[in-house]
Specification:
It is built from 22 helices and twelve strands. With 454 residues, the protein is of the alpha/beta class. Strands 5, 6, 7, 8, 9, 10, 11 and 12 form an eight-stranded mixed sheet that branches. It has a four-stranded antiparallel sheet with strand order 2-3-1-4. Helix 1 runs antiparallel to helix 2, helix 1 packs across helix 6 and helix 6 packs antiparallel against helix 7. The protein is globular and about 75 Å long.
């Protein structure tokens, strides 16, 4: 089996970046397709992944530097693959120390020759060598507002930075953006139905020497270099892959064995299976998703983990009714959202979203909460959560709901189900809390709990 050289890996990364740019597709899906190719070696896969995510993550900074050495009309007329090649090469020069600068330039020129013609190769060579001769360009700032400066230096859309400045102030906004640019740490949740965390951690340390217990969850392990998906522990169902912040959601439901639970937007089933583990696999969990293939994904995850109480069904959560499903003692609504808490995992997300998306998704969230809350039994608990950091999608949704529904209240006892390490950084005393990406270098997450009065 032929092994692609490192230059080949760069061409694969260029292919992925160009497809994402031209078709507005998702980076993780494009990467998944490409990395399935048999001819890619393990080092090549790692390099392709780093180049794709890194180039997308730092896109605005890279474009600012490129624009300093090109005329405005010249920059705008670049073919998509040429622009991506320049971005990709600049990313290597600036952010990857292990790749010599001249090697990055040489490979870029050779790729340009193979894909274009001598004129494009000369352009690529000239621009990149100008950057190498003028390294001070990386420290330059636009002369505009604070929002524009942060947008360029931390590579985020200016409209989003402006929004966060109003919500969180300059110091916190910078911290959010800087945290978003860090690589995500791989973390797993121990399947407590099979073993405890200490046992699994002891076993895993032989293969992941930097693995350590999560500070956010008693079921979490941070691998700190490496991935669990291809291991025997994952295949046997001893663990599942889940971000640390996400591991706080299921405990917030305060479930007990034997209860009846609804997970209204369940796919791919990470939180659903966590709930089942906390219920000791006793009771019933109805797990809904609107897509049939995701129903199969939930079922497969449950089977791998040895969980039998999850009943996955294909339903639009907006169509759920008590007449069909009855009432539930616990409901989880992990609502669809803009996803601004997971930018480090999905860097293309920040470039694809628009300001109007926030209000649009917030309207849907309000409808979903209105619908599923009607299925909650008196005295029951409902957890509303998202992986975004936008108040309009989070506390505004739940505060408006309880204001219009006096039979519901924000459950301030939620704080008792939040670990002390989290409470030291985030206020959950009002029945909700907002975790920001820089708090624990994990996903940004909002968690709230509503109670239906008996």
């Amino acid at each position: 089996m032929a092994v692609i050289k490192r230059s080949g890996a760069r061409e694969v990364a260029l292919e992925v970046l160009t497809r994402i740019d031209e078709y507005k597709s998702y980076s993780n899906l494009e990467l998944k397709h490409v990395l399935a190719r048999d001819e890619l070696s393990a080092p090549d896969k790692g390099l392709v992944t780093e180049l794709v995510y890194g180039t997308i993550q730092r896109q605005k900074t890279l474009d600012f530097v490129l624009a300093a050495f090109m005329k405005a009309n010249q920059f705008k007329k670049l073919q998509p693959w040429v622009l991506q090649l320049l971005r990709l090469s600049l990313y290597q020069i600036r952010y990857l120390d292990r790749i010599p600068d001249r090697a990055a330039v040489h490979e870029a020129v050779e790729i340009a020759k193979r894909k274009g013609h001598q004129g494009i190769a000369s352009l690529v060579n000239g621009v990149l060598r100008n950057v190498l001769r003028n390294p001070q360009v990386w420290d330059q700032q636009p002369k505009g507002s604070v929002a524009e400066q942060i947008a360029v230096s931390e590579s985020h859309p200016e409209w989003l930075v402006s929004r966060w400045l109003k919500l969180y102030g300059e110091e916190t906004t910078r911290a959010i953006c800087q945290s978003n640019n860090l690589p995500p740490a791989a973390s797993i949740r121990v399947n407590r139905l099979r073993m405890d965390r200490e046992q699994l951690l002891t076993e895993m340390l032989q293969h992941f020497p930097d693995a350590h217990p999560s500070k956010l969850s008693g079921s979490g392990i941070v691998l700190a270099g490496g991935h669990a998906a291809g291991t025997d522990w994952f295949a046997k169902g001893d663990c599942t892959i889940q971000d640390e912040s996400s591991m706080l959601v299921a405990p917030a439901l305060h479930v007990k064995p034997g209860q009846r639970v609804l997970d209204a937007c369940a796919a791919p089933g990470g939180k659903t299976t966590h709930i089942a583990e906390l219920m000791a696999n006793q009771g019933e969990i109805v797990a809904c998703d609107v897509h049939p293939h995701k129903r199969e994904l939930i079922a497969a995850n449950a089977q791998r983990l040895g969980i039998t109480i999850i009943k996955p069904i294909v339903r639009d959560a907006l169509q759920l009714s008590a007449a069909e499903l009855g009432q539930f003692e616990r409901i989880l609504l992990d609502a669809p959202c803009t996803g601004f808490g997971v930018i480090r995992r999905k860097p293309d997300l920040k470039w694809q979203k628009q300001p109007g998306d926030i209000a649009q998704i917030a309207a849907l969230q309000a409808q979903l909460l209105e619908r599923v809350a009607a299925l909650l039994a008196p005295g029951g608990l409902l957890v509303y959560s998202t992986c975004t950091i936008e108040p309009e999608e989070n506390q505004c949704i739940v505060e408006d709901f309880v204001a219009r529904h006096p039979e519901f209240e924000l459950d301030k006892t939620l704080v008792n189900d939040i670990p002390q390490s989290v409470r030291e950084r985030v206020d959950f005393s009002q029945g909700f809390g907002q975790i920001l990406p820089q708090h624990f270098q994990s996903d940004g997450f909002f968690i709230s709990r509503l109670k239906r009065k008996a």
